[in-house]
Each structure stands twice: as C-alpha cells, then as structure tokens.
Design brief:
Layout: H1 2-24, H2 40-92, E1 96-101, H3 118-129, E2 135-141, H4 158-175, E3 183-187, H5 200-206, E4 208-214
Length: 220
C-alpha cells in the first residue's frame, strides 16, 4: 500500500513540474507579416486561451490525484490502527510466566518434589486468585538425556516424566485452593529447550516446570 502511495506522489509532483514548465514557457512565433496572416492580437488571445485550458485540465488532474492519494493514506492509516489494535489485544491475552521451577526442584530422574519454597507457592496462589477468570498452564520440560531402561522404570520416556512433574506442581496448587478446572497440564519432554543440551549447565536450565497465567478477556 505504501508503494502505491509513493508512486502516486511521484506522479503528482511530475505533473506539477509540467504545469509550471508550461506556465513559464512561451511559444515562439514567426513575427514577419504577410497578407494572409491572422491578426497578431487574435493569435495571442488563442494562444493564451489554449495555455489556460491546458493549465485548467492539468490542475483538475492534479486535484484528482491529490484526492486519490488522500483516500489511500486514510485507508492505510485505518488499516495500521486496526493492526495495532489486534497486536495490543494479543499482547494483553498472552500467557504470563509466573514461576519457573528449576531442575533442583525434583529428585534426579523422578517426579518426586525434592525442595520447594513455601513463599513461591504462596506467591503463585496469590497471583492466580487475584485473576479469578484466568487459566493456569503448567508446562513440564526435560533435557535430552533419555530415561534409563530398566525392568521397573517408572516413566516411559522424557515426555512422560515432564508431564508427571508438571502434574506434581498442579497437585500442590489444588491443595492450596486453586480449582482443578482452571489448570491445564502439558508435558513437552525435551522438545522446547531454552539452552544447549551439550553442557551440564544448559541441561540443568532445560529441566524445568513453568507455571503460566492466561488472563481472561478484559483482564490486565
């Protein structure tokens, strides 16, 4: 759309230049007198009339172009405002991460909670309760080290482990009064790393459970 407006603007300025050139340029006529020539004053009037008609036509064309450009700019402005409104609405309804539980929260290779601060749970419950119409998404993630195979293993794979860890956090929130109907639990396994799995530090960051809040429509 901007390209069209720019193109029309170029045409507008070109026509304006042509009009100015015609207004300043005077045609050259043979000034020798012959018996069969018209009256010089009459010819001058005809030339002036022709120039005036051309200028009027050009002015009308320029006026039409200006009106067209104004309409296009108005439409472009309206579309940009609509897009900005959509972006704003999308940002307001985007999930907000409340807390990320790191790999140290759980026992190695298990969904059993090893250590968790009560203040963190208290904060989560307060934030969730303050938005009664919101939904809670709890996402479990692991590194890419596969679950060791054994006859009595508790988990099928990392996807299963990540889900059960997220579910363990959900159970704590339910225990503290958050309705189970508001909570969704998802296990992503190792499919969404936040760091490289090539180092122990990176793998530790990838072993996490994220608690997110999705505001209800109209809530900030």
């Amino acid at each position: 759309m901007r390209v069209i407006i720019i193109g029309l603007s170029v045409i507008f300025f070109t026509l304006s230049a042509i009009i100015t050139f015609k207004a300043l340029g005077l045609p050259v006529y043979n000034t020798s007198y012959q018996d069969d020539r018209k009256d010089p004053a009459s010819e001058s009037r005809e030339v002036i009339k022709k120039l005036t008609d051309d200028q009027d036509a050009n002015r009308a064309l320029v006026s039409d172009l200006q009106a067209t450009i104004a309409r296009l700019e108005d439409k472009l402005s309206t579309k940009e405002e609509a897009l900005e409104s959509i972006k704003t609405a999308d940002a307001e309804n985007r999930p907000r991460t409340l807390t990320v539980f790191g790999g140290g929260t759980f026992r190695s290779g298990q969904d059993v909670i090893n250590d968790i601060a009560f203040s963190t749970i208290e904060y989560l419950v307060g934030e969730i309760s303050a938005s009664p119409g919101s939904r809670v998404i709890i996402e479990g993630h692991t590194d890419n080290i596969p679950i060791k195979s054994s006859a009595g293993k508790l988990y099928r794979d990392n996807m299963d482990l990540s889900f059960l860890r997220a579910k363990a956090i959900a159970n704590i929130l339910v225990f503290h009064g958050i309705s189970l109907d508001r909570i969704s639990v998802i296990g992503y396994g190792d499919t969404r790393p936040v760091d490289s799995n090539d180092t122990e530090e990176g793998r530790a960051k990838n072993r996490r459970v994220e608690v997110k809040l999705i505001p209800a429509e109209g809530e900030n």
